[in-house]
TrEMBL record:
The chain crosses the membrane at residues 41-61, 73-94, 100-130, 151-172, 196-218, 238-256, 276-298. PROSITE patterns: G_PROTEIN_RECEP_F1_2 (PS50262). GO terms for cellular component: membrane. Residues 52-296 form the G-protein coupled receptors family 1 profile domain. It is found in: Membrane. Its main location: membrane. The lineage of its organism: Eukaryota, Metazoa, Chordata, Craniata, Vertebrata. It comes from Geospiza fortis. Keywords: Membrane, Transmembrane, Transmembrane helix. This is Uncharacterized protein LOC115947817. PANTHER family: C130050O18RIK PROTEIN.
């Protein structure tokens, strides 16, 4: 693969000579919007997502220590850890509307670990859907043995995520690694192939696999002893809610990535509006990680533990432990005048 010279590219808000008041006003408006979106995300989504993630970790680890081990719960634990890592990487947006300043090498390393979490969460969720599908449609002996060994499946997912992240790190480019640049987790100076590979393996193929799982779930006739489709979906509403959330948020994000690739191929840096929408798409991706963690709390084992915790707190509340003050005995009048 031939190397691309990407030294010409820059963010519209950082490079254009603004000669008219309209252009200056557009930049100011764009920066105000992204700043407000960022503050909303940091103030609302990050605390909610992290609190939900910590609760899920405590519940699943506690159940694991009590030998309440289920393949689905172990996969959801892995999915939770991936999303918590994604939230920590989202702290890179705190500087918006400005960008982090780092060398090409540091930016490439950040991109590698971010993509590792991104691919990991995407493919482990496909594994979760496959586990639910095989629960409704009993698999062959070999496939059943594979699904009953979730650690082996997770190891396979981690290997795939590592290989894809390493490929993306190469496609960021290795030239001028010592130069300082404005850094995003998806570097602007990456080769066009970077976004194309990320779209194909990070959204295109996983989305096709999700559609295939749902098609089989709805169209294939289940065995007589299997629960009805309504009962099956009702037993795992959190997983299917996460599926819809991930698809919508990642669709928006990946469409914007492809649009940025089209601009690169045209050797255009775009407009401040394009830059604004790409920044919003990045924050929407991080919002999806937070929302997924909150939805997992409605998964039955988590929901049961949360309800037990609330009931214990109610029993220990001061309202139920109030101290009754005995009434004073009435004083008897003295017989002396």
């Amino acid at each position: 693969m031939t190397s691309h010279n990407m030294t010409w590219i820059s963010y519209p808000s950082k490079s254009q000579p603004f000669n008219s008041p309209e252009e200056i006003e557009a930049v100011i408006t764009s920066q105000n919007i992204i700043s407000r979106v960022m503050h909303c995300y940091i103030a609302l989504f990050v605390p909610t997502g992290l609190i939900a993630g910590i609760c899920i970790l405590i519940i699943f680890i506690k159940n694991h220590l009590q030998k309440k081990r289920a393949s689905l719960d172990l996969l959801l634990l892995h999915f939770t850890i991936s999303n918590i890592i994604m939230i920590f990487f989202s702290f890179t947006v705190i500087s918006r509307p400005d960008y982090l300043t780092a060398t090409h090498l540091v930016c490439s390393v950040l991109s590698f670990f971010f993509n590792f979490g991104y691919f990991n969460s995407q493919y482990v969720f496909i594994l979760i859907l496959l586990t639910l599908l095989l629960e409704r449609f009993p698999p062959s002996t070999a496939l059943r043995k594979a699904t009953q060994r979730p650690i082996l499946c997770v190891g396979f997912v981690l290997t795939c995520a590592f290989c894809l992240s390493l490929t993306e790190a190469v496609l960021v480019g290795t030239d001028d690694y010592y130069l300082e640049v404005h850094c995003q987790l998806d570097p602007l100076f990456a080769w066009p192939e970077y976004e194309i590979v990320k779209f194909i393996f990070g959204f295109g193929i996983p989305s096709l696999l999700q559609i295939l799982c749902f098609t089989v779930l709805w169209a294939k006739e289940a065995p007589a002893e299997a629960p009805s489709l309504q009962q099956h979906i009702g037993a795992y509403p959190a997983v299917y809610a996460i599926s819809a959330t991930m698809f919508i948020c990642r669709l928006f994000y990946n469409v914007m990535i492809l649009f940025r690739t089209a601009l690169k191929l045209q050797r255009s840096i775009g407009t401040t509006k394009n830059e604004l929408v790409m920044n919003i798409a990045e924050i929407v991706l991080f919002c999806e990680s937070c929302a997924s963690l909150v939805v997992i709390l409605f998964h039955k084992p988590c929901k049961d533990e949360v309800l037990k915790g609330i009931q214990r707190c109610r029993r220990k509340s001061p309202a139920n432990n109030h101290i009754e003050i005995p009434e004073a005995a009435p004083a008897h009048p003295s017989g002396s005048q």
